[in-house]
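Exam prep: given the inputs below (a chain plus thiamine diphosphate), describe the expected output before reading on.
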Amino acid sequence: MAPKKTTANSASKANVSKDELLAYYKDMLLIRRFEEKAGQLYGMGLIGGFCHLYIGQEAVVVGLEAATKEGDKRITSYRDHGHMLACGMNPDGVMAELTGREGGYSKGKGGSMHMFSKEKHFYGGHGIVGAQVPLGAGLAFSDKYKGNDNVTFAYFGDGAANQGQVYETYNMAMLWDLPVIFVIENNQYAMGTSVQRSTKSPSLWERGAAYGIKGEEVDGMDVLAVKEASEKAVAHCRAGKGPYILEVKTYRYRGHSMSDPAKYRSREEVQKMKDERDPIEAVRSLLLTGKHASEDDLKAIDKEIKAVVNASAEFAKTSPEPALEELWTDIYA
Ligand SMILES: Cc1ncc(C[n+]2csc(CCOP(=O)(O)OP(=O)(O)O)c2C)c(N)n1
Ligand SMILES: [Mg+2]
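Solution:
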């Protein structure tokens, strides 16, 4: 059966409680401030190697996580700091991994793209474009095999959506009715190529039709729309109906990685998104106009989050570098 296109919107905003709105605001703001700090530490030479920031895309992961329960799994690409914070991993451990310190999630030996948390069911952090998609189906297979109702979120980008392994995975996931939500974070660009330049059929979720997988497109700058779509997708998977595709339309404000001359788009385009579609500003405005919070309340939240992020940076600077002997631990050979 062909997938149905039902673009979720925020029509149900009125049904969202004050506490929920505040929680989404805080979660998105934590990611934004954390990423800004990571950018600063990178500029100071404290973070080496690759570093891909999530700024602009915060509503995607926060909206999706809003529909999860304990036991659900997540796996993503190298643009992974936001996913880790949103599933409750400790900012100290994430920041210390970025600076390559002992207190990091991979003891300082993995860096930005290679962190994991068994406790929070976060399975990385993958630098090979698209590689996490079949791995995500494998995670879902394990839950199906065990007979529980957990769901796996396999996140990947618009660029990765042109990888062959994605479609091999779609086929197997549908054949075996795996409880996996394929989340295409369509931020309009791959490394330096826009979707328009690289992709003949710009609707990425509709490709699931070839495998009979249902899906939809969602406004990824609207956390409430993402949450609503996530609830629907999760219900589908938990009911044993097989995989689901969510193409979440979003935008990254920063370069692909820290070393990106960004010649493929104009400053005006980026500024327009910031001015008109910022996901955090949107919730801020809902909080204020709905009289759920005052300017002072929001200032206090800002302060609270800055303190958490500053503490993580302090930890990441002071945690020692891994000892030399660590070169010989956590390796296969
Ligand atoms: C198999 C493979 N090919 C190429 C690369 C280089 N590369 C890294 S990220 C990237 C772009 C991916 O873009 P997208 O999937 O849209 O994710 P985004 O960076 O926008 O989150 C490319 C080509 C890689 N890491 N792995
Ligand atoms: Mg992209």
